[in-house]
Specification:
This protein is α/β, with parallel strands linked by helices and about 260 residues long. The chain is built from 8 helices and 15 strands.
């Protein structure tokens, strides 16, 4: 059985969300399903929830691939880190665990990488044929680097050292909230972060995601950069859409991408 919808699943610290994605339109094919993240959130426990979501949408996705985002570095199906999930994910053969539980291939990707690909294909960076850098400002800083539509995975540029400190400890949105900073106090932190990224990578476009991006008008126009910097468009849909696109691409399912 074949179908035109590809299931994307976004694993977060509090919830696991999934929806079939129409990759021609770049949008959900039906309403998403959210299930609370289990405690402890081990790979095996999360695989059970992923299986529930896949079963819920079984009639819509047929034999299409499944893409899963994880807040971790993902290299060749193995998760090498863990952010806001159980530390048992570190060096876990995650794709193998998920594939064995679901009985079908699963493509696992870093959550920021998935969001970045979604923005390049369908969102704020669509039709940009240069170097795009997505950053997500949240509890930490996630990043995705995409050149001419090709992803350079697992960049983790929220952890570059700036002025002797891990960048996200100064510039993440959570720092603004924790310290009660006004935007006038937070903007210099963002300026220092983005000007450093620009000096190192010279991107053609920055795309800024994360919950704080809904207030983009309050801070993005104040940043002094050579590159354009714009808010993400897909918001909380980006991870699911990007995971679905990357899964179809990895499986060579060009029939689902056009």
């Amino acid at each position: 059985m074949s179908n035109t919808a590809v299931l994307g699943i976004d694993i977060g610290g509090s919830g696991i969300k999934g929806a079939p994605v129409d990759l021609v339109k770049g949008d959900f094919a039906s309403e998403r399903l959210r299930i609370p993240t289990p405690t402890p959130s081990t790979p095996e426990a999360v695989a059970e929830v992923v299986a529930q979501i896949a079963e819920h949408f079984a009639a819509e996705i047929g034999d299409a691939p499944i893409g899963v985002t994880i807040p971790a570095v993902v290299a060749h199906g193995i998760t090498r880190s863990a952010a806001n999930i159980d530390k048992s994910w570190i060096d876990s053969p995650t794709e193998q665990i998920f594939t064995e539980r679901l009985g079908r291939p699963i493509h696992a990707v870093n959550d920021a990488d998935a969001a970045g690909m979604a923005e390049v294909r369908y969102g704020a960076a669509r039709d940009n044929d240069g170097l795009v850098m997505l950053t997500t400002l949240g509890t930490g800083i996630g990043t995705a680097l995409i050149y001419r539509g090709l992803l350079v995975p697992n960049t983790e540029l929220g952890h570059i050292e700036i002025d002797g400190r891990d960048a996200e400890t100064d510039a993440a949105a959570s720092v603004k909230d924790r310290l009660g900073l006004k935007y006038s106090e937070y903007i210099p932190r963002l300026q220092r972060y983005y000007e450093t990224l620009e000096r190192l990578f010279s991107p053609d476009l920055f795309v800024v995601g994360g919950g704080i991006s809904k207030d983009a008008a309050k801070f993005l126009p104040k940043l002094k950069l050579k590159a354009d910097i714009v808010p993400a468009e897909l918001r909380n849909k980006a991870g699911i859409i990007g995971a679905a696109w990357l899964a179809a691409d990895a499986a060579g399912r060009t029939d689902l991408l056009t």
